[in-house]
Structures are given as structure tokens and as C-alpha cells.
Amino acid sequence: MAAHTCYLRCAKMWNQVGVKVIHDAPHFIRGFCRRCVKVKFASCAGQSQRQHRKTSVVSYNIQTRGVSHPPWRILFFGSDDFAVESLKRLHAARGDGADSVLDSLEVVTLSSNVPVRKFAEQHELRVHEWPQVDSSGQFDVGVVVSFGCLLQESLINTFPYGILNVHPSLLPRWRGPAPVFHTILHGDKLTGVTIMQIRPKRFDVGPILNQVLYEVPEKSTADELGGSLAALGAQLLIDTLRNLPERIANRTEQAREGATFAPKINSCLSWLVWEEQTCDQIDRLYRAIGSRVHLRTIWMGRAIKLLDFVGKCNMPFTEISSFAAVPGSIHYQKDSNTLSVCCKDGWVGFKTVMLKKRLSAADFFNGYLHQSVLKKSQSQNSCQFQSYREKTGQNPKSLLWNQTIG
Questions:
Q1: Do 77 and 224 lie in a common domain?
Q2: Residues near 9 by beta carbon (within 8 Å), at least 6 away in sequence
Q3: 164 and 240 share a domain?
Q4: Carries keyword Mitochondrion (predicted)?
Q5: Which of 74, 91, 237, 386 has minimal Cβ neighbours within 10 Å of its Cβ?
Q6: If 0-12 CB within 10 Å is exposed, 13-18 middle and 19+ buried, where does residue 324 land?
Q7: Does any domain span residue 31?
């Protein structure tokens, strides 16, 4: 009985240090004298207390490591050239001495041929294969830049400070995978970069930690704007990491008003609708997608690509007075070696076309249009481009404009 009473006293101590109690104590202590029982339980309890203190310290370090300041252990998720700019800046920040924001840097990417993997291997950064990523207790914060995959909530929760995203727009405007293209496509005068914390299940809806404005240069292409925003975003990321706990404490939720979606650029957007698109709209379309997808139209029942866009053309009245210009009408300007095409509110020019092969404006005119011009048959299809219409009747132009999120 005394031994059992002693056990209960020791068991109470075990409970205080979080050790599971063996409830069949009488069987456990059978064969021990009272003194041995006391010594046995005291010894075990002492070991348990020491183990508990050790475990508590480890747990505390994992969850609160660097609460007040960096350096951080970072796991980077990315794929393309836009992401490389942030990865490059993070890698350089490892050598900033006492002011370094990084303790360690490792990379998660998608395949063997993307720019992020090439940079990581070139600079001997450890690469994790997606989606087999085990980050439990190894990192303080994650960084996602142009990765393209939703991260599971279970993965996000392994980072004490969550996962940051560098997004090239002023969220909530242009959520989605192609914000830079849509910024140019819709003629935005002002854009920027947002640093936000990601949330599971939906892209680009998390709270904003940092944001900076950027004025879109006139006549900028998507490639040029993307390069500028990549550099700006990389620096903004470093600035955010320098005082991350404060940024998280002062984060703001995204406004519901003004949210728009920037879907991936589809090749159907490259089909021109001469009757409905203005000179300015065609100019923005070319600057947005021209480096990746050539503008296209229909000529004599065949698809033709329009290259080397020169913008709006000032057509002398004497050159167009001899025929009734309608959208799609073609006119060759010999002095500038430009193929001019009539659209909704004027004329736009191209230096090159792609039919069976690449042809200059002069070659296309001399080889295909000259005889029609001599016969003064501009009303015939040979001197006019036709707008492409899908069998569904959907106008490709309708896919170009703002998609507001309700």
C-alpha cells in the first residue's frame, strides 16, 4: 500500500513533466521494496524533466528563431527569368556580413530546363524536386516567385513566418499568372510590385506586407516592363525580409474593390479584328504579346503572320482617294517599305509578313499584290485582310479586356 502511495506521488510528478503514466502501477512495482520504488521513480522523473526541458528549448527555437531580426533560413520556389532576379538578389544577400538577411538558401523548382534550376546548379544551391518537398523545421520562411503551382496548406504551415510571394502588379489588380502582359494590354499607366503572404487554394489573395508603385514607360513592351519589375521586386523582397516580423504585424488584407484577373496569354488573342480594333489597341496588343506570339490575320483564305510592327501610319489622302478604304484594306508604302493595313480608326504598318516564308513588305507586294494593284482591283480579296472568326462565333477581341472578379 505504501509503495502504491509512493507511486501515485511520483506519478503526479510525471504528469507535471508531461510523461505518460503507466496505470497498472501495482504490477509494475511488484518485487521492489519501498525505497527502491522511490529511487526508481525519482530517477525516471529526473530523466524525464531533463528531456522535457531539452525538447522545450528545441521547440522554442524552431518556432521563434529570429523573431526580432534576420538572418533567415529560406526555401525559394521559382521557375522563369522573372524569378531568377529575386533568387540572384537573395544569393547575393548571403554575403552581406553582419547585415545579411539570409542564413541559408535552398531552391524548389519544376523541371531540369528552367532558368531557376540552371542558376541554382551554377551557384551550387541545393535543389529540391517538386512536389516531394520536406521543409518541416528546416526553414523560417518560404519565398515564391513565378512558380505556377498552388502550395498545400500543410506545406505552408511548416514555415513559422509563412511563404512570401513577389507579384508584379498592384494587387488586387491583375491577380493571376500574366499580370505584366495585361498591364500593357490594357494601357495601364501605373503598376508596381506587391509582397504578400500566400494562402492555400487560391492564387494572389493573401495579405499585403509591402508594395511599391512604378510608372509604366511609354511604348514599353511586356518584356521590358517585366525586366524592370523583376529588379524592383527583388529589392522590395530584401527590404521586406529585413524587418519581416514588423511587416507581418502590420499586414493589410486586400481590398475587394478593383480586383481583376490576368489569365495566361492564349494564342487566339493574336488574331486581329480589323473592324473593331483601333490603332492604339493593336499597338498595345503587339507590345504585350508580340515577342511570344505573332499577330495574325487571314489573306485569301490562308493564315498570315504580321511581323515588325511600326505603329500607326499617316496615310496621305492622295494615296487612298483612289479606292474606298475598308477595315482590312492593304496599301504598300514604297518610301518606307511598309505594308499599311486599315483598322477601325486608321492605318497600322508592318515591315514583314510570314506566309510560306518570311517576306519583306516589298517582296509581299511585288509577289502577291502588284498585279491586283495594276488592275485596280482593290475591292477584291487579294488586296484585303479578313478578320478571323472562330466557328463558335466568339470574338477573340472579347478576351482582351478586363476580367473583373465579382
A1: yes
A2: none
A3: yes
A4: yes
A5: 386
A6: exposed
A7: no
Range of the domain at 298: 267-375
Is the residue at 347 inside a domain? yes
Report how far residue 343's alpha carbon sits from residue 283's, in angstroms, rounded to the nearest whole number: 12
For helices 34-64 and 2-16, angle between their N-to-C axes, nearest 10 degrees: 10
For the chain, the domain total comes to 2
338-376 burial: b if 16+ Cβ within 10 Å, else e: bbbbbbeebbbbbbbbebeeebbbeebbeebbeebbeee
The Cα-based distances of 357 to 289, 304, 363 in angstroms read 21, 10, 11
Is residue 198 one of the residues assigned to a domain? yes
Determine contact, residues 184/284, Cβ cutoff 8 Å. Answer: yes
Tell me: do 240 and 328 sit in the same domain.
Answer: no
Rounded to two decimals, the pTM is 0.78
Q: Please name the amino acid found at residue 175.
A: R
Mean pLDDT in order along the chain per 10 residues (406 residues) = 43 36 36 44 43 36 51 96 97 78 94 92 94 87 95 94 98 97 98 97 96 97 98 98 96 95 93 96 97 94 95 74 76 93 95 95 88 51 78 47 43
**65 lies in some domain:** no
- List the CATH number of the domain containing 144: 3.40.50.170
| Cis amide leading into 177 (omega within 30) | no
For residue 313, the cross-strand partners are 347
The three-state secondary structure class of 255 is: coil
pLDDT at 317: 58
146-to-124, 127, 266, 278, 347 alpha-carbon distances in Å: 21, 17, 18, 32, 37
Spatial separation of the C-alpha atoms in residues 10 and 127, rounded to whole Å = 50
